[in-house]
Amino acid sequence: MSDAKVAFDVEIPSDVKYIEGVIELATRKCRELSIPPRKCSLNVRVALAEAISNAIIRGNGEAAQKHVRVRAVASDKAVVFDVTDEGEGFDLHAARPDPTAPENLMLEDGRGLFLMERLMDRVERFHSDGNVVRLTLNRE
Amino acid sequence: MSFSISKQGEVVVVDVEGQLIVGNRQELKQKVLDELEKGEKKFLIDFSQTGYIDSSGLGVLVSLSKKIREQGGELRLANLNDDLQTLFELTKLDTLFQISDTRERALESF
User: Fold this and answer.
1) What is the DSSP letter of A91?
2) A20–B23 CB contact, under 8 Å
3) pLDDT tens digits for range A20-52
4) ipTM beyond cut 0.90
5) N or C: chain A end with fewer CB closer than 10 Å?
6) Does the distance separating the beta carbons of A19 and B52 come in below 8 Å?
């Protein structure tokens, strides 16, 4: 990604009240980058909200002294969002019930990762100065 | 972001003013449960001012639907924009909820 540029880079406390501000910023940047409007309003907003919420609640346990960093890098081909928390991480490939199966439709939980995977072109998790969830959205 | 509650005939109408996400879902849940406890049975949630819903917001709708049905009531939804409609289709929750294009149609459907 030699042509890649940082679109934004913010750090927020581990409180869910900060999520909406980051999502507004991400949506605005997404439009400035000429990403198709539908991808900005649906894919980016929902998938990124899930990743940040997961980082705050599960990653950092909503601990006041811990932070979540959200960084977006844009290239000609894609926008990559890195959401970093201070937790141990989780197994992205662990078997999970399909939330769309008839027997699971009435479950309250279990749709977060499913939505990230359906709305992004790639979802990865790794350690790099924290636990990182990387969401990649192709421009096309 | 907040929720306003009004009554149209026998139907409790909840207007969601903003997004339905992890930060405010409990407020919606409590408001609807308070009405359910008062004996209300018919509920309509209007999303005309809502841009997106996250998985915890969807979860609260599922939970409320279950609790309302257990009390012999009904929960219906109205005014989902294209993004929200897609979200319900992706998660197949469009098969769980009765969804109307407009508030009027939703109210007539009870």
Assistant:
1) -
2) yes
3) 999 999 999 999 999 999 999 999 999 999 999
4) yes
5) C
6) no
